[in-house]
Here is the input.
Amino acid sequence: SSSKIAPSRKKIPENHRKLHHIAVRRKIDKLHRRTALSQPCASNCDIESAVEELVGGLHASRESQQRKQKMAPIATTNDSKQAQLLQAGEEAALNRRPDANYYSNHKNGLNEGPRPTVKPELAAKPCPIGAPLVVTIVGLPCRGKSLAAHKVARHLNWRGHSAKVFNVESAATTDTLREISLFFKESNNVAIIDGMHLTRQSRQLLTTFCNEKVFHHLLIEFSCTDKCLRENIDDTVAFYHNLDQNIDWERRLRESNEVHSALFEPCSPLEGPLITVNNSEDVRLHSITARGVLGAIQTAILGVLAIPVIRHRTFYLSRHGESEYNVLGRIGGDADLSPRGMKYAERLARQLGGPGSAPDCPKPKLIWTSELRRTIRTVQNIPGPRTAIKDLNEINAGICEGLTYEEIQERFPQEFAWRDQDKFKYRYPHGESYLDLLQRVDSVVQALLANTDVLVVSHQAVLRCIMAYFKGTRPDDVPYINVPLHTLLIVRSYGYDFEVETVPLKVECVDTYRIQPKNCSTTRTTADALTTVPAHFDAPIAQPTMAPSQAATTIS
Here is the structure.
């Protein structure tokens, strides 16, 4: 043993001093036992030499391991685990692999604490851009959840998506999830689960479901101001009182709120994309925050929720009075009113608080028109603040502006046939399609929903898009909604539904409604193409005697 060269001594790292000491002590004890049994003449020098060899070997092993790992980070453990290893004297602790919860970076000297762990079965898989979306509604009773859920679904369906509200009593069940899976298999893409989902456990069920199915998941949590809560309770009590007058619905609702408030666990950003809404009809108190919202659909939902919901609303919609172009069967342009159109403007004013109106007649608080003069002339006798909005202008017919359907068939027969084949998506050359128009009118509809008692005087195509929102019409059917001239449409909201009342004002006019012809082929005859074209005059209608400044003109 005296001939062996002891390795050079190196200072043991501070964090491994105790572990080295344990290993050395065990080796010394082993040498002592062996000396006592088989080598009684062994000296202390032999033992010291063996100890030096052991310590040097430990250092050499550590340096070799670090070279192989290229100075890879070494894991540390918490105090309780380290104490257990020290007690057991585990030599394997020197070569322990990095722990998933703790991390020690020897390179930059930074030590991080515990990281939250995620169970493998709950780890979210990356969702494709076009994957379906599950929206989970969260909140206590009477916070405006159902009203907002149906508002979101109505808007998404209006914009061409396929959305549906799934009503649950408190939280989604496995039956609900099964229905959603079948719903998505039918090429639908947005499911809104309207319930309370008060606990994180109930929401975790939905998160796991979406991760397994590779669906997008969005949480929307609702709260409201005290005034809004009282109004919501009053509305709910009035609704249920009509169903059963023997129950104290107000007391039941307040007790339900107290019970559920004790169970409520607010949403955390760690649960996924989250929108929080503080409901109020007052735009100054209505607030919304968002975290992790991604994609066009989720962004559209955010825009819808940003506008306060007014429970009781009334809107008045009307086309302009008959124009000179309507009489001649021409589309587009900026023609003035015909004599019959001027008469309708007077009749509309008497209906809505103008000269000669009844004291109890409705009076709009706001009047919106397009920038075209036929709409502005229609409301000139109606009292109230007027605003001309560019987005309410008629659809741009491009190269077909100012032409009759007969002239379009003669000059552009193929374009005329293509439009009949898909009127919603067809875009006039250098013009617009109904799809473009729907996007243009979106901002007007959202502004309309934030107000009440608004009169909108616009054009046939624009009002078709607006009426499609209130009626829940499929996009492909929007171009065939009948919005006749000289008719007032009154839209009233009932909860999250709308009712449309049609009020003809009995002023004679032409009919501009054209249905889809049976033959939409590009090789069809002229007679087949013009089968459904409405009748019109070949010359302007004779005007009554009036001052030259009031004479109607036609713009070509």
Remarks:
- The chain has 17 helices and 14 strands.
- Residues 38-42, 70-79, 89-123, 545-556 have pLDDT under 50 and may be disordered.
- The longest strand covers residues 216-224.
- The CA atoms of residues 231 and 418 lie 51 Å apart.
